[in-house]
Design brief:
This protein is α/β, with parallel strands linked by helices. It is built from 8 helices and 15 strands. It is elongated, with a radius of gyration of 23 Å.
Length: 332
């Protein structure tokens, strides 16, 4: 083994590749800390976090503290030189942060101080960002406010969705985290205070996921991209049905060829041109979005054109109504 002795804190599947990279790089991981097992599903069956499974497969000891006191006890017992955090899901208090001589570092999926918070990838896509990246920084008591060790920038493709962007950022982040740990262990790392205007990426609330006719096509598509990992962009129909959007795309406006003489043509929230077997356009403010696959509430996925047939809707008919009171649109 080489480098500092580590304790790794993480919980969801997002964190697993980073733990595996640290082990593959030859670092000594003294132990892994994850959130406690939780009941999931209709049967409320107890389920352990993915990081726990990954750690056990790597023959690493796992701890699942249920309180701040238990977390402090676990970290103190492991005697790490450095703590590494990736998507642990809980703020770590000063009395724990001060235990390792080299402190704690965190891998964050944005270019800090932009998009501090729980959902940086989702919000960067929802807001139509053209560039993002990953940052390794030293943890302090604030929400993603500590000094930066290193970062990597990358452009965002206009059609890229959350799963694809997560995958790319993970690959960039794995290499960045390994090199950062090496630099810190060798005493060569510098810690630079964050600079620039901060922005925030709070946890995605269900109300955010609803499309509204008042959105532009670009904003609707960005919401679809940002929520592709869940809870999925969706819309409410005039009949009161909730429909998730599983596949959508931006197409040239001239492709939506519904005649303007059709009743309702061009009104935001209405059905546009239909391509049988492929999908249909739905009107938003200033243009249209092409829908290809949908999932009505309580049903399985269905082709968008087949959905129209089943709902007996034709071009010009109303399809999307504004979100109910208390809903929220994207931060754009």
């Amino acid at each position: 083994m080489s480098g500092p002795r580590l304790v790794f804190l993480g919980t969801p599947g997002t964190a697993c590749p980073f733990l595996e990279s640290l082990v593959s790089a030859g670092f000594e991981v003294a132990g892994v800390i994850a959130q406690p097992d939780r009941p999931v599903g209709r049967g409320m069956k107890m389920c352990c976090p993915p990081v726990k499974n990954s750690a056990l497969a790597l023959n690493l000891p796992v701890f699942q503290p249920a309180s701040g006191a238990e977390l402090r006890e676990a970290v103190a017992a492991l005697k790490p030189d450095l703590g590494v955090v990736v998507a642990y899901g809980r703020l770590i208090k000063k009395e724990v942060l001060s235990l390792p001589p080299l402190g704690f570092i965190n891998l964050h999926f944005s270019l800090l101080p932009r998009y501090r918070g729980a959902a940086p990838v989702q919000w960067s896509l929802i807001n139509g960002e053209t560039e993002t990246g990953v940052t390794v920084f030293r943890l302090d008591e604030g929400m993603d406010t500590g000094p930066v060790v290193a970062s990597v920038r990358t452009p965002v493709d206009p059609a890229e969705d959350a799963p694809a962007l997560f995958a790319r950022l993970t690959e960039l982040g794995r290499a960045l985290l390994v090199s950062s740990v090496r630099e810190i262990g060798a005493g060569r790392a510098s810690f630079t205070p964050q600079s620039g205007e901060p922005s925030h990426a709070p946890k995605i609330r269900p109300a955010l996921s609803f499309l509204s006719p008042s959105m532009t096509p670009a904003a609707a598509f960005d919401l679809f991209r940002g929520l592709a990992c869940g809870p999925r962009a969706r819309f409410a129909t005039p009949a009161g049905m909730t429909v998730q959007v599983l596949k959508a795309s931006l197409r040239p406006p001239t492709v939506d060829t519904i005649p303007h003489g059709v009743h309702g043509a061009g009104v935001p929230g209405t059905v546009g041109h239909v391509e049988p077997g492929r999908g249909f356009f739905v009107r938003f403010t200033g243009g249209s979005l092409f829908l290809e696959e949908l999932k009505p509430e309580g049903r399985g996925p269905v082709g968008a054109a087949d959905f129209l047939n089943g709902a007996r809707l034709v071009p010009g008919d109303a399809l999307i109504v504004p979100p109910t009171a208390g809903g929220e649109g994207p931060h754009k």
